[in-house]
Amino acid sequence: MLQALRDKTSGWIAIAIVAVLAVPFAFFGMEQYLFQNNADYAAKVEAPPKWWQSAPDWWLVRKFAWSSAEVSAEEFRQTFDSMREQRRQQEGEAFDARAFETMESKREVLEQLIDRAVLGLAADRANIVVGDAQVQEIIQSIPAFQVEGRFDPQRYQMALQSTQPPRTPREFQEGIRIDLQRALVPQSIAETAFVTTGESTRLMRLLGERRDVSFVVVPPLAVDAAEVSQADQQAWYESHAARYREPEKVALEYVELKAAADAGAENATVDEAEARAHFEQVKSRFATAERRRASHILVEVPAGADEATQQAAQKKAADIAAKAQAPGADFAALARENSDDPGSKDGGGDLGWVEKGMMAGAFEDALFAMQPNAVSAPVRTDFGWHVLQLREVDAGKPVAFEDVREQMEKEVSEGDSSRVYNEQVGRFVDEINKNPMSLEPAAAAGGVQIQTIAPFARGAGSGIAANNAVVQAAFSEALTQDGTVSDPIEIGPNQTVFIRVTSHTPERAQPLAQVSERVIAEVRADRARKQAEQAADAMVAEIKGGKTLQALAGERQLQAQDVPGIPRGAPVPDASASQAYFRAAPPTGDTPTPGKVMLADGSSVVFAVTKVEPGKPEDASEQEQRMLRQQLGSLLGSEDAEIMQRSLRREMKITVNEARL
């Protein structure tokens, strides 16, 4: 039987069946089969090609025709950690790290990174290019790179080297270029927004509107002391279960290693030969790098240009170079007339001072091989052909050992301290590797004390338990499940801790019996709030029925207040009440419009709007009207940019890999 099946499936019919099945497999199933478990990105954005906007979302088509950008897991983690630190600084003690670690928060951060990737692809498709001069202008305007209000190349280099991880000028420059490129798309859309005179006039009437209001503040009712049945407790507990969960907690023991502050005290005098040897190794830090003042003329070559276009651009650049090299030529005038670099064109091609590492390789190589006042032959980069003019050279200035002797001696001394510290950490790691389940042998060998931290929740610790790296390790599965000592965790310069989790309590629901008092208090407070709201609703109904607010206040021994001409935003008696006044419909004739607002403390404000007076645009000066139109135009432009962003996202395919978050 099996042989018969083999015979019948070995001819042309079997081949045809396989071919038919291969088509849907190739277009729909192969991607999942090959790549479903291999993605190492947090998100991926794919866009159809500009020349085929309606390209189908098939794997083979996307693979070979669509462009893509990825949000790496590392980029997401760095951004998420940075956002957490910002929120911690903003909220202080009120910051809840556990609440911030939710998937909702992670997706919120990831969505921002996806938006950046979408804008990057949109800019590439629109052939948006940011000129070198514009990048240089941004860099030179950053206060961190300035000394006494002027850009300082040495400060620039040192600042980049102090970042984590260190960045070269070229890397930083490309990062600025990418950020500017992404910002140009929404910025261009936002700048097209405008506001008509009629729109601004109507808005001024609304913003300047004033209302006459009578209101009474009804104090909160006393908390109901009536018994709360077991059934009511159970119902409240189940409907608000998230409030009664005990967060995950860990308790720690740890050892802290620090470099001794007086490690070099025994040998206060540093050998001069050693200090000089150190100076020879690091003297490039102190020398002012050579810089060159340059101008350029760019003949742009679009990405993907055909051979004829490229040759035409090269010929045009050669003709410009010949004109610029002629005696008496005005390079700045040629740049204003011919350059395709919008950032430097109006300035005659001026790029300012340029150091090595700030420009593309071929551009930089040509510039630093030129003689002052010379004009180069055309130089090819990714942007097109450049004709360069070297206007001035500022040679680097070396620093003598005597000028930095004290600093060299200090660094040698600190280096000795760091060396002792690193050796101590190394010995401690060796002891931990011998006894990975206990800190005691390593602590005894190193002569340090083991310290403990009582159980704490994520984000609720203090001291080293507030350090992000410590928290991440403490709540990791490796330490909570195995009970092993952690790898060394650096929490500061020359400061390292080793931790071990001594107890771990997973997140769990607190039983009703444990939180019953809290449940009862919340049920009673909820009852009081509902009763207060019902009383306020009853007062509003009576006003609608014809009673005056003053009469109602007198019946309840409350004080009604009449406030004429309340402007928008005035907290009378509370900002939320003011918002309610202006949400209410205008009164009809002599019939006021009543309403109510519940305040956070359980009290309520019952009010009646008796008169509405629109704002008077004619009272505003021309300058005030112009400023309002500008502000409104800015708001409308931002809204247009957001709409454009959403539209771009719909045109692209976005894949999120939550396993990498």
Automatic annotation (TrEMBL):
Compartments, as annotated in UniProt: Cell inner membrane
Domain PpiC residues, every copy: 289-392
Gene3D superfamilies according to UniProt: 3.10.50.40, Porin chaperone SurA, peptide-binding domain
InterPro entries in alphabetical order: PPIase_dom_sf, PPIase_PpiC, PPIase_PpiC_CS, PpiD_chaperone, Trigger_fact/SurA_dom_sf
Pfam families: Rotamase (PF00639), SurA_N_2 (PF13623), SurA_N_3 (PF13624)
PROSITE patterns noted in UniProt: PPIC_PPIASE_1, PPIC_PPIASE_2
Positions of transmembrane segments: 12-30
GO molecular function: isomerase activity
Mode of membrane association: Single-pass type II membrane protein
Keywords associated with the record: Cell inner membrane, Cell membrane, Chaperone, Isomerase, Membrane, Rotamase, Transmembrane, Transmembrane helix
The keyword Zinc-finger belongs to this UniProt entry's keyword annotation: no
SUPFAM superfamilies per the UniProt record, alphabetical: FKBP-like, Triger factor/SurA peptide-binding domain-like
Broad class of the protein's primary localization: membrane
Family label: Belongs to the PpiD chaperone family.
Protein name, per record: Periplasmic chaperone PpiD
Organism: Luteimonas fraxinea
Lineage, broadest ranks: Bacteria, Pseudomonadati, Pseudomonadota, Gammaproteobacteria, Lysobacterales
